[in-house]
Design a protein that fits this description.
The complex is a heterodimer of chains A (113) and B (119). Chain A is mainly β and 113 residues long. In chain A, 0% of the residues lie in helices and 52% in strands. Chain A starts with a strand and ends with a strand. In chain A, strand 7 and strand 8 form a beta hairpin. A 5-stranded antiparallel beta sheet of chain A has the order 1-3-8-7-6, with no helix packed on it. Chain A has a 5-stranded mixed beta sheet with strand order 2-10-9-4-5, with no helix packed on it. Chain B has 119 residues and is mostly beta strands. Chain B is 0% helix and 49% strand. The chains are: A mainly beta (113), B mainly beta (119). At the A-B interface, strand 5 and strand 9 of A face strand 4, strand 5, strand 9 and strand 10 of B.
Chain lengths: 113, 119
């Protein structure tokens, strides 16, 4: 079993829809949960992170973690064509600088105008 | 700041050839790493370095070599290219130091990538 599983999609939704992107993980020691966004032919960039269980909101984006079920979600409200990208989840054990990240395979999202 | 730069952007190699992928950062970051990205496989860590003179293997190190003589540069060498090494390669760097708490957990800055094809 992979440490991090992510539905690769692709996922296409109309503009303005609510998008739900999900990951599952197997290692209960993960404490920090990152979401990276990668535009086509670009490097990934950190979108947001959460610590432990709960929700974190940043504008139209909400990251949610349920540690009891080892389930990570990213919700995008009022989706825009500019949100079209691949989204990668990446849990981590700690917030120390030498932490190696384990990335999910990524979900390719297309927002249709 | 230029951030993380990678050269070349594209490269085609024949099986058995060797080459070096260049990576440089101007942010004075201690932590640098190399990933490869393949369809359906996500980003996989090849090698990483926690500072000048210190390197270690990641998940998929075979066929690759690294060194870190300066804080700024972290080249990746392909010793004898194979078709299985056809991939997109990303270099990344991070501010934080070993044993220090990150200002932003999990924050890594990625370069634009090198698309490598081995025929």
């Amino acid at each position: 079993q992979k440490e991090v599983e992510q539905d690769p999609g692709p996922l296409s939704v109309p503009e303005g829809a609510i998008v739900s992107l999900n990951c599952t993980y197997s290692n209960s020691a993960f404490q920090y949960f990152m979401w990276y966004r990668q535009y086509s032919r670009k490097g990934p960039e950190l979108l947001m992170y959460t610590y432990s269980s709960g929700n974190k909101e940043d504008g139209r984006f909400t990251a949610q973690v349920d540690k009891s079920s080892k389930y990570i979600s990213l919700f995008i409200r009022d989706s825009q064509p500019s949100d079209s990208a691949t989204y990668l989840c990446a849990p981590a054990h700690s917030n120390f600088g030498n932490e190696k990240l384990t990335f999910g395979t990524g979900t390719r999202l297309t927002i249709i105008p | 700041n230029a951030g993380v730069t990678q050269t070349p952007k594209f490269q085609v190699l024949k099986t058995g050839q060797s080459m070096t992928l260049q990576c440089a950062q101007d942010m004075n970051h201690e932590y640098m790493s190399w990933y490869r990205q393949d369809p359906g496989m996500g980003l996989r860590l090849i090698h990483y370095s926690v500072g000048a003179g210190i390197t270690d293997q990641g998940e998929v190190p075979n066929g690759y070599n690294v060194s870190r003589s300066t804080t700024e540069d972290f080249p990746l060498r392909l010793l004898s290219a194979a078709p299985s090494q056809t991939s997109v390669y990303f270099c990344a760097s991070s501010y934080s130091r070993v044993g220090e708490v990150s200002r932003i957990p999990g924050e890594q800055y990625f370069g634009p990538g090198t698309r490598l094809t081995v025929t």
